[in-house]
């Protein structure tokens, strides 16, 4: 087959992959019809409903306050449903979350509002970023290996065979954090240019508004990008040449950080106040009706015990390791075992080019940073959640390494079979989660242990019981088939897509 | 530095320090020592300013151990004891005599700081010897020196740094000797190990491992020299090589000298060469309480033992540093291929072997939050002895160097991880060894106890407390060490545990069974009898403070088995005048004055009466004020006559209402004897009784203006006249009632004695035919009862022990003496008709009884009954001429009893 037809084939495949991915995400996004009032949101907190957990409520609240009440703090009716992620500061109820997710989802909220689907559209924002993340993984792997099939497969593995899927259809920050990390890695891989440098600093600054530690994960990438613009000569003297671009990049950083500082200034009265460090309001009573009571409750609005460093402790590592790696309720071994195959990158590493070695090391360092941080995190469970949601950015980096491994072992049938089995297992588990609920309590919180030991079995049970969170299924498709059929349909479509890519990967060497 | 703006960017010119590196290298030793001294001083200043130097209870104990040699009720070198190894305490001796150095902990910290510097120097030397790479040497020396747990421990008077320095020096000199074969290195190795064995028992494991290393290295050397010969021949020759065994023997003699001396010391002082291993204060004995509670989880559990020490190491050096060292260790295996250097470096792992085997054997306890176990309760029990993991730091430094020297990327990655770990640990809340000392089981927060003692126990009164608390209390109170009676005070300690009241004004002991020897002696083994002499002054979280009772002047109190007043013994003959309160004031005055004139010192009367309008308590909570005024008058009059009264607060029998009336008030059946048991158990009845007791005990005398509870005229409160259970099997209901009501009265009135009113039946039917309880045996086992009593009527007892010779008195007094309680007869009466007394006239009976009482050291007897009226049964009256001779008999015996005391 000629190169040209090969390129066309790949582009068609790429297009088909992204169309199918878009459709799949579009039909499983959580939601309900209508432009929701604050009261509606308050009443949609049951399991499988779009606001079953506080993170999505807290983030949606900012959007709703912004568009419906023209303010960044919360009116009382909104504050009511934000609890327990609610703070009180200077006479205002304010969020405990950085506002990035809310801001980014605002345009689609506004668009959806015109069609009477404000909630569904705002949640769809996350799906769009999830698809962009798949694309970025594809691009990065392709840049590293020149193997586009491996890139597509790596993207599919990330989105469908990890907990990225259940968090691609609801209003969480993980796909935005992932986007910033992947984008910065992509910029690192691009040829040295001022644009890349400026953009990377801008991205770095912008990431603060989504999640503070996203910036920490990006930091190593920013450092190595910056080093491209620093020339060091060691002789009798050491001469360090700093390109002026770095100073311009710093300006880009300042521009990027402004929205975050402005928000903190407006909401907390201090532009350097971190969102999570404000004292929370846990008691609904303070909302009723005596606002002064709430004021006195929050006299010391900054909680001294909630400094950022207190969230992370070395003594948590043992527990974090057990929970995030090996436990049946959150361990990635149970939710995304295909990730384990990245270990084979060790065998690829020594034979890689110097540039690729640098990239692999950088990806490894970013992963290590994410892992260390969340192992030290006081709540590795991520509260009520489905699987290890904090590791989604790590999975994206690991998928890049899986792409490298797939490129190397693309003709090894045993390896491909191993990949396929683990992919389909992860796909089934995470699709079950995506179609039903993320509201699974850490076992330490449920004395009665009403949940099964392997928590995703509960999601399978919900599939059998026909309890879906999907907006499209609940409003349209349920007339045609039950949830179990819908579940198998999605698995089948994605599996076929994956296998087509895998076959093409297997055959690609012969074709080339 | 020069900065210039060029077209292509900003140029910064810096001097190249690599050029001056050789010059710096020349001064490396001075820079290293200077840095270590500076770090040591800064760390000490920081922790000292935060008052954290003496957080560990053991740190105070170490200071005391040295101080007690010179400042003690029983000073001398024997105070070094037989459990903790002596070198650290001997080192402290020249400084610890100074109050300021002792109180601040500086007398011990100085040595920790010194040995910190020594350790740092030897780590650096060892690294230079092993890894050669200068960058790795610098980084890993800093890795050692900047460890925040190490910096904390070097600021305290603990012994970890002393051992570390000798251990590292031992490994260093072993390595040098292996390579140089010089005698000086061998001698220095032996000296380092000898000293290590006298610091902590971990040093003994070092002794074994160094000996094993020498054996392996020398054996291998011999085997290599015999390479031509068959393997088994080589082994046989090697194992009979005299040089090999000679060196080992010499090493054993030199390095093992400390161990031998310690065994000899134990033998000489404690008559048991293995006292340190098997004695009451050995590690094993100390863990016995935890083991007994089933919470010494590592005992016999190898996985948990390994896990415990794993997390101890990780928490002390930082998890990521620890993992780096682990990878470095694997690299060392790969690179060194078990060569001599590697074998020597294995001696750095001695703490692992020592602690895991100790944990597994139940000789040691180590708890960390990661283990999710709790040896006591609360946060405290989740952290204990975390510092054991610090001993692995030299090994971690050396093996991390193997990793760091591997290459640029790994070097910087590890560097970042080390930096990150150390930054994370550089916060007080994360310094595990500090937390353990502050909040874990290694801490002993006695601040509230010592504050209380400083305010309430100044002066010179001795304080009985076990060494484990004494160390903390001595420091935080600042009291003279000579005020404390503890295990190191020899005969004082032994005597005080038997009779604390003889020596100790104060007792500080655990408030539960946690192995405190004072608690064991006074509460577990002696049934709290000490409470006769002590009041619980204050309760704290885990300690109770008791104070020796200080009875006000003229009050009757109990000491040993005797009644006393103002330090003088009180033996008496008294009279019952049961209905005195129901008499007119004139009769009362005459009754009391005539009794006094007849030689009677004590009057027992009934302060009860229930149910009728003209008795003391017509209805529950309603009291007859006129009769209470009479009681005021009785007390005022008796007081003037210098007599004591025993006030009986209720009656088991029906006379004046009694138990039955109480039951009627709450509509409970009251016919059968078993019905009457309900009096002692029914909560409503108990409340009515308590309310009545409150009304009497808390009353203020309207004539004298003295509160009853402050009135020395009252000798005792008696709970009930002749209380009984319906059967022996239900005796406990009455006995429990005694406990409850005694405690209740003592909570209102802390000076007066409380008696039960029992008749003194034995549980031996051949002595007395009664099948009701509680017997005198039951009551003597009740820790809340202070006094035993008996009622003596001839038909109560078998004639063989009563009328014939009154050996019953001997039985009673012997029994009471054995129980450690005073005994008195509070009712005794013989009929005026000889026929009722088996043909014996009552004068003879009384004379025999009084003689028996005198001989048997009976504390008192109270006759039944004294009144201003004559009768033909049991009464004794000043108005009855027939009693005159008898009264003279009592008078003369009253004097004799007084004189006999």
UniProtKB/TrEMBL annotation, chain B:
<feature type="transmembrane region" description="Helical">
    <location>
        <begin position="343"/>
        <end position="366"/>
    </location>
</feature>
<dbReference type="InterPro" id="IPR001547">
    <property type="entry name" value="Glyco_hydro_5"/>
</dbReference>
<feature type="transmembrane region" description="Helical">
    <location>
        <begin position="28"/>
        <end position="48"/>
    </location>
</feature>
<keyword id="KW-0808">Transferase</keyword>
<protein>
    <recommendedName>
        <fullName>mannan endo-1,4-beta-mannosidase</fullName>
        <ecNumber>3.2.1.78</ecNumber>
    </recommendedName>
</protein>
<dbReference type="GO" id="GO:0000272">
    <property type="term" value="P:polysaccharide catabolic process"/>
</dbReference>
<feature type="transmembrane region" description="Helical">
    <location>
        <begin position="100"/>
        <end position="123"/>
    </location>
</feature>
<dbReference type="InterPro" id="IPR045053">
    <property type="entry name" value="MAN-like"/>
</dbReference>
<feature type="domain" description="Glycoside hydrolase family 5">
    <location>
        <begin position="616"/>
        <end position="832"/>
    </location>
</feature>
<feature type="transmembrane region" description="Helical">
    <location>
        <begin position="386"/>
        <end position="404"/>
    </location>
</feature>
<keyword id="KW-0964">Secreted</keyword>
<feature type="transmembrane region" description="Helical">
    <location>
        <begin position="205"/>
        <end position="223"/>
    </location>
</feature>
<keyword id="KW-0732">Signal</keyword>
<feature type="transmembrane region" description="Helical">
    <location>
        <begin position="308"/>
        <end position="331"/>
    </location>
</feature>
<keyword id="KW-0472">Membrane</keyword>
<feature type="transmembrane region" description="Helical">
    <location>
        <begin position="409"/>
        <end position="425"/>
    </location>
</feature>
<dbReference type="GO" id="GO:0005576">
    <property type="term" value="C:extracellular region"/>
</dbReference>
<keyword id="KW-0326">Glycosidase</keyword>
<dbReference type="GO" id="GO:0016740">
    <property type="term" value="F:transferase activity"/>
</dbReference>
<keyword id="KW-0378">Hydrolase</keyword>
<dbReference type="Pfam" id="PF26410">
    <property type="entry name" value="GH5_mannosidase"/>
</dbReference>
<dbReference type="InterPro" id="IPR017853">
    <property type="entry name" value="GH"/>
</dbReference>
<keyword id="KW-0812">Transmembrane</keyword>
<feature type="transmembrane region" description="Helical">
    <location>
        <begin position="135"/>
        <end position="152"/>
    </location>
</feature>
<keyword id="KW-1133">Transmembrane helix</keyword>
<feature type="transmembrane region" description="Helical">
    <location>
        <begin position="244"/>
        <end position="265"/>
    </location>
</feature>
<dbReference type="GO" id="GO:0016985">
    <property type="term" value="F:mannan endo-1,4-beta-mannosidase activity"/>
</dbReference>
């Amino acid at each position: 087959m000629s190169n040209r037809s090969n390129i066309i084939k790949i582009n068609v495949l790429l297009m088909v992959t992204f169309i199918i991915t878009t459709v799949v995400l579009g039909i499983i996004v959580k939601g309900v019809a209508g432009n929701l009032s604050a009261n509606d949101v308050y009443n949609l907190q049951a399991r499988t409903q779009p606001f079953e957990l506080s993170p999505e409520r807290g983030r949606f609240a900012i959007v709703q306050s912004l568009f419906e009440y023209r303010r960044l703090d919360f009116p009382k009716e909104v504050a009511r449903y934000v609890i327990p992620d609610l703070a009180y500061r200077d006479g205002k109820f304010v969020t405990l979350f950085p506002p990035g997710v809310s801001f980014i989802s605002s345009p689609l909220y506004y668009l959806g509002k015109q069609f009477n689907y404000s909630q569904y559209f705002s949640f769809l924002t996350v799906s769009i970023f999830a698809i962009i993340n798949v694309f970025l993984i594809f691009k990065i792997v392709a840049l590293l290996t020149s193997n586009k099939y491996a890139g597509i497969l790596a993207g599919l593995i990330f989105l469908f065979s990890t907990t990225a899927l259940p968090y691609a259809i609801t209003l969480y920050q993980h796909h935005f954090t992932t986007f910033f990390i992947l984008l910065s890695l992509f910029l690192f891989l691009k040829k040295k240019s001022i644009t890349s440098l400026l953009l990377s600093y801008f991205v770095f600054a912008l990431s603060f508004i989504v999640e503070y530690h996203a910036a920490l994960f990006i930091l190593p990438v920013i450092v190595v990008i910056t080093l491209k613009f620093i020339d060091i000569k060691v002789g009798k003297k050491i001469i360090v040449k700093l390109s002026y671009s770095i100073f311009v990049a710093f300006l880009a950083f300042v521009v990027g950080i402004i929205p975050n500082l402005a928000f903190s200034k407006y909401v907390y009265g201090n532009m350097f106040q971190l969102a999570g460090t404000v004292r929370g309001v846990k008691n609904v009573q303070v909302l009723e009706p005596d606002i002064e009571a709430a004021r006195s409750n929050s006299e010391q609005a900054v909680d001294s015990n909630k400094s950022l460093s207190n969230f992370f402790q070395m003594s948590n590592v043992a527990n974090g390791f057990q929970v995030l790696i090996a436990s049946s309720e959150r361990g990635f071994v149970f939710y995304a075992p295909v990730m384990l195959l990245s270990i084979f990158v060790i065998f690829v590493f020594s034979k890689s080019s110097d540039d690729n070695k640098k990239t692999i090391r950088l990806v490894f360092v970013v992963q290590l940073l994410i892992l260390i941080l969340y192992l030290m995190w006081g709540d590795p469970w991520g509260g009520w959640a489905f699987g290890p949601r904090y590791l989604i950015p790590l999975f994206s980096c690991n998928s890049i390494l899986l792409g490298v491994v797939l490129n190397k072992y693309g003709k090894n049938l045993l390896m491909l079979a191993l990949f396929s089995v683990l992919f389909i297992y992860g796909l089934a588990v995470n699709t079950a989660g995506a179609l039903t609920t993320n509201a699974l309590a850490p076992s330490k919180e449920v004395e009665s242990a009403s949940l099964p030991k392997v928590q995703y079995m509960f999601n399978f049970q919900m599939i059998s019981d026909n309890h879906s969170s999907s907006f499209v299924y609940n409003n349209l498709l349920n007339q045609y088939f039950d949830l179990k059929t819908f579940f198998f349909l999605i698995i089948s479509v994605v599996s076929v897509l994956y296998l087509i890519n895998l076959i093409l990967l297997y055959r690609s060497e012969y074709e080339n | 530095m020069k900065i210039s703006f060029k077209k292509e960017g900003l140029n910064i010119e810096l001097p190249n320090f690599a050029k001056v590196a050789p010059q710096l290298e020349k001064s490396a030793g001075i820079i290293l020592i200077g840095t270590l001294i500076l770090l040591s001083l800064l760390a000490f200043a920081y922790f000292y300013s935060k008052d954290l130097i003496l957080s560990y209870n053991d740190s105070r104990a170490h200071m005391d151990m040295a101080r007690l040699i010179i400042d003690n009720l029983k000073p001398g070198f024997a105070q070094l004891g037989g459990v903790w190894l002596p070198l650290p305490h001997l080192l402290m001796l020249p400084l610890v005599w100074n109050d300021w150095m002792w109180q601040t902990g500086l007398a011990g910290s100085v040595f920790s700081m010194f040995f910190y510097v020594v350790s740092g120097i030897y780590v650096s030397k060892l690294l230079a010897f092993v890894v050669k790479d200068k960058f790795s040497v610098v980084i890993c020396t800093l890795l050692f020196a900047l460890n925040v747990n190490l910096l904390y421990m070097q600021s305290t008077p603990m012994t970890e740094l002393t051992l570390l320095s000798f251990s590292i020096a031992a490994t260093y000199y072993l390595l040098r000797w292996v390579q140089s074969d010089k005698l000086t290195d061998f001698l220095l190795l032996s000296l380092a190990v000898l000293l290590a064995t006298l610091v902590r028992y971990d040093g003994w494991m070092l002794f074994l491992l160094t000996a094993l290393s020498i054996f392996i290295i020398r054996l291998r050397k011999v085997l290599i020299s015999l390479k031509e010969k068959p393997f088994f021949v080589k082994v046989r020759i090697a194992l009979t090589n005299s040089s090999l065994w000679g060196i080992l023997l010499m090493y054993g003699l030199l390095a093992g000298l400390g161990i031998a001396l310690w065994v000899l010391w134990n033998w000489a002082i404690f008559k048991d060469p293995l006292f340190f291993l098997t004695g009451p204060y050995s590690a094993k004995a100390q863990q016995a309480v935890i083991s007994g509670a089933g919470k010494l989880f590592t005992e016999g559990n190898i996985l948990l033992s390994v896990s415990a020490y794993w997390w101890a190491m990780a928490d002390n050096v930082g998890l990521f540093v620890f993992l780096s060292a682990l990878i470095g260790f694997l690299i060392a295996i790969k690179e060194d291929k078990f060569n001599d250097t590697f074998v020597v470096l294995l001696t750095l792992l001695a703490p692992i072997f020592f602690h895991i085997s100790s944990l597994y054997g139940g000789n040691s306890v180590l708890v960390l939050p990661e283990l999710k176990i709790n040896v006591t309760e609360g946060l405290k029990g989740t952290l204990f002895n975390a510092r054991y993991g610090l001993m692995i730091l030299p090994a971690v430094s050396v093996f991390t160097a193997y990793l760091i020297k591997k290459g640029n990327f790994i070097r910087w990655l590890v560097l970042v991880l080390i930096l990150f770990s150390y930054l994370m640990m550089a916060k007080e809340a994360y310094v595990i060894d500090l937390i353990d000392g502050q909040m874990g089981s290694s801490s002993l927060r006695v601040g509230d106890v010592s504050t209380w003692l400083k305010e309430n126990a100044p002066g010179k009164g001795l304080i009985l407390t076990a060494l484990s608390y004494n160390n903390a209390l001595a420091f935080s109170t600042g009291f003279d060490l000579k005020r404390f009676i503890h295990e190191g005070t020899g005969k004082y300690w032994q005597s005080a545990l038997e009779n604390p009241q003889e020596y100790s004004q104060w007792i500080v002991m655990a408030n539960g069974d946690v192995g405190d020897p004072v608690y064991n002696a006074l509460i577990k083994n002696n049934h709290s009898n000490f409470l006769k002499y002590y009041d619980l002054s204050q309760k704290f979280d885990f300690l109770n403070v008791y104070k020796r009772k200080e009875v006000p002047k003229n009050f009757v109190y109990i000491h040993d088995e005797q009644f006393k007043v103002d330090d003088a013994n009180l033996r008496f003959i008294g009279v019952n005048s049961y209905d005195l309160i129901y008499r007119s004031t004139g009769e009362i005055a005459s009754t009391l004055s005539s009794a006094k004139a007849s030689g009677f010192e004590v009057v027992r009367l009934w302060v009860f009466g229930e149910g009728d309008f003209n008795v003391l308590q017509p209805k529950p909570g309603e009291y007859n004020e006129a009769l209470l005024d009479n009681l005021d008058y009785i007390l005022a009059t008796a007081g003037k006559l210098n007599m004591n009264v025993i006030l009986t607060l209720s009656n088991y029998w029906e006379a004046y209402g009694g138990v039955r009336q109480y039951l009627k008030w709450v509509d409970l059946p009251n016919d059968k004897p078993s019905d009457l048991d309900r009096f002692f158990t029914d909560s409503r009845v108990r409340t009515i009784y308590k309310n009545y007791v409150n009304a009497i005990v808390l009353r203020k005398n309207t004539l004298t203006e003295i509160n009853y509870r402050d009135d020395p005229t009252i000798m005792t409160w008696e709970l009930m006249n002749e209380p009984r259970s319906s059967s022996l099997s239900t005796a406990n209901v009455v006995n429990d009632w005694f406990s409850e009501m005694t405690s209740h009265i003592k909570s209102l009135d802390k000076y007066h004695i409380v008696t039960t009113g029992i008749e003194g039946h034995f549980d031996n039917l051949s002595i007395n035919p009664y099948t009701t309880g509680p017997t005198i045996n039951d009551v003597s086992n009740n820790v809340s009862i202070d006094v035993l009593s008996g009622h003596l009527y001839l038909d109560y007892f078998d004639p063989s022990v009563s009328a014939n010779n009154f050996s019953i008195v001997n039985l009673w007094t012997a029994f009471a003496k054995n129980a450690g309680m005073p005994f008195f007869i509070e009712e005794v009466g013989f009929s005026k008709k000889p026929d009722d007394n088996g043909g014996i006239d009552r004068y003879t009976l009384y004379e025999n009884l009084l003689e028996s009482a005198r001989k048997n050291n009976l504390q008192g007897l109270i006759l039944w009954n004294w009144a201003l009226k004559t009768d033909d049964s049991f009464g004794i009256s000043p108005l009855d001429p027939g009693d005159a001779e008898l009264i003279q008999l009592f008078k003369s015996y009253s004097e004799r009893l007084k004189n006999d005391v």
